[in-house]
Amino acid sequence: KKFMLGYALSDVEAFTKTALKNGYQQELLRQAGLIKEKGEKDIDFFHHRVIFPILNLSGKVVAFAGRIMVKDDRAPKYINSPETEIYHKSQLVYGIYHARNAIRKDDECFLTEGYTDVISMHQAGIENVVASSGTSLTQEQIKLIKRFTNNITILYDGDVAGIKAALRGLELMAEEDVNVRVVLLPDGEDPDSFLHKKGSAAFRDFIARSKKHFLAFKTELLLAEAGTDPLKKAEAIKNVVETLSKIPDPIKRSVMIKECSRMLDVGEQVLITEVNKVKRRQFKKET
């Protein structure tokens, strides 16, 4: 009830016929992305799927996501409403309406990948959570979260795809000057499965113990990939320098340079020099 979950019937015209019978205009249904043309007739955009309404900040439904009910390798697991006048996927995160007060109160936002992760965490009493809905995080989404807190903790599945997804979002967050921490769940787990197996208290405890500042997380990951290869380590250092240069706050940047210097076993002054070089290059591009 809280998340208004629904179900689209397997009959591809069930919604279209019902909506038209109830006086909704065909053109409006098309513009809202609820029906689509197929040949000579209109059919439902969603059918035979569990439906997750997507709410904007004021609690109005602006779009839907549908999860497939049967295994079908030819069909995507999730589909989203198309972009419309009222729905811009890159500007919204799932669950923000239900989470906004808890985010403000706890001064932290947990960011997950999926709709069910958000719902499971609410059931476990953790309400300061939103989902990026399977997309790479955008600057508009980060700015939306920033309206309520500067502290974002990313909860990602512990597989390689999850790690790479985390890194993509982290670069953007560095530029937006938010405090980002990362928690990688054990391999094969997501927040939904972890909560079902271990319970709320163990989940909270795991998050508290496993949080890492995003740059420490990234540095650790790159060093592990480089192993004992000195050239790969040099590349890793360059990569970290690029990220350091994106941190706008000079105090935070200075603290992180010190930390990365220790982790990379590279002189602090070397990192400062390289970061300044990158910043000069960026400045020249902008002017």
Secondary structure elements and pairings:
Blueprint: E1 6-8, H1 14-21, H2 26-31, E2 35-38, E3 41-44, E4 49-55, E5 61-68, E6 78-80, H3 96-106, E7 109-112, H4 115-123, E8 129-131, H5 139-146, E9 151-156, H6 160-175, E10 179-184, H7 191-198, H8 200-210, E11 212-213, H9 214-226, H10 230-245, H11 250-264, H12 268-286
Parallel strand pairs: 7-8, 7-9, 9-10
Antiparallel strand pairs: 1-4, 2-3, 4-5, 5-6, 10-11
Helix pairs in contact: 4-7, 7-8, 9-10, 9-11, 10-11, 10-12
What would you note in describing this structure?
Helix content is 49%, strand content 17%. The chain is built from 12 helices and 11 strands. It has helices at residues 14-21, 26-31, 96-106, 115-123, 139-146, 160-175, 191-198, 200-210, 214-226, 230-245, 250-264, 268-286; strands at 6-8, 35-38, 41-44, 49-55, 61-68, 78-80, 109-112, 129-131, 151-156, 179-184, 212-213. The longest helix has 19 residues, at 268-286. The model has no long low-confidence stretch (mean pLDDT 90).
Primary descriptors:
alpha/beta, single chain, elongated, four-stranded antiparallel β-sheet, 11 strands, 17% strand, 287 residues, five-stranded mixed β-sheet
